[in-house]
Structure formats: C-alpha cells, structure tokens
Design brief:
11 strands; alpha+beta; globular; 3 helices; 200 residues; 3-stranded antiparallel β-sheet; 6-stranded antiparallel β-sheet
Length: 200
C-alpha cells in the first residue's frame, strides 16, 4: 500500500484543515475485513486412557482408544511367543481342547495377551463344550467384530491392539443372556484375579 507525502509551505491552521479534509474525502476507507480476526477452527482430539476399577464381582474397564497399541510385526515378535504371534497377529487357531482356559472357571477378568486390555469378566464365561473358552459377552467397547473375507464367520479382535481373539456365533441355542458364543483362543488371553494384574 502506497502513501502520498505533500510538501507545502507553512499554512494557516484553517487552510490546513480544509486541505486535510479534502484529502481524506479522496481516500477510500480500508476494508473492514482486513481488521477482523481470522481463526482456524480447533478440534481437540479426545484423550482416552485405559483404566481399570475393581468392583464386587469383576473389573470395570474402559477400553483404550482403537489402535492405541499399534506395533510393527517386528515389535510384536519381540514381545510375543511364536505361538502368540501366530494366533494374535496372523489370525491362527489353537487346537480344540488344548487351551489353558478351556475348562478354567476362576473368578476375575480375562485380558488381551498382547496388550493387557481387559476383555471379558469371568462371570460371562460358560462351558459350551466346543473346545475353546466361551463367553456370552465382552466388556463394553473392548472387542471389535469384522466379517471374515469369506463372509462365513464374524471375527472378534481386541479393540486396542487388533489382536485376533477368535469368532463370535449367535443363535446356537445356549441359555445365555445374549444367545451369543464368543469362541476365543486361550493363548489370546491372560487371566487376572480381581486384585491382581495379569500384565505384571
């Protein structure tokens, strides 16, 4: 933006006022939009943390944000056993009847063996006779469901790390509140009593 400098001889105050008023009428006022503040909208990301609170009969869990435990295959191989890696990260399946928790009915909570996120209360576990641990529901927000590529079954995974747990089946006639069976690999789980932490 340019400016005009006038060199004039000394004038009386009345003449000066007349000239200045005429000059001001020739200049255009600056657009008001130049003086308005401009702000970029700011949308803070929600902060979600993994917390556990003990209560009578189980553990109340708030699941971590989805994807909050993402690691490369090399990082997972460094912290998981070969069999855990095969099942949790490569979507394998353990042989029926061989899992540690198939016939186990202790009181506590089942956590993801990969990241430690609480997944199931022991009060939702039941004996389905299928050869794998069975639960009729997971903790709120802890488990994701996705159709298998062939569309035949629904895969269940840990919402926090994406670890493969097994599959969920509905309408099989089990007398459970949800009429669902979460068929879970034992090796995908770690059990913790109410007053302990399986990740320690």
């Amino acid at each position: 933006m340019g400016c005009l400098i006038l060199r004039t001889p000394p004038l009386s105050s009345s003449t000066t006022i007349t000239i200045l008023s005429k000059f001001a009428s020739l200049s255009k006022p600056a657009p008001t939009s130049l003086f308005k503040p401009h702000f970029r909208p700011f949308a803070p990301k929600p902060i979600t943390t993994l917390t556990k609170r003990s209560f009578r009969g189980g553990v109340l869990a708030m699941a971590a944000a989805p994807g909050s435990f993402q690691k490369s295959d090399e990082e997972w191989q460094a912290i998981l056993s070969p069999e855990q890696f095969r099942i949790l990260r490569q979507k394998g399946t353990e042989y029926p009847g061989t899992g540690e928790y198939d016939k186990f009915f202790g009181e506590g909570v089942y956590q993801c063996a990969g990241c430690g996120t609480p997944l199931y209360r022991s009060t939702t576990k039941f004996n389905s006779g299928c050869g794998w641990p069975a639960f009729y529901e997971g903790l709120p927000g802890a488990i994701n469901r996705n159709p298998d590529p062939d569309g035949m079954r629904i895969e269940i995974t840990c919402a926090a790390c994406g670890g493969h747990l097994g599959h969920v089946f509905k309408g099989e006639g089990f007398r459970t509140p949800t009429n669902e069976r979460h068929c879970v690999n034992s090796i995908s789980l770690k059990f913790a009593t109410e007053n302990s932490d399986a990740s320690q």
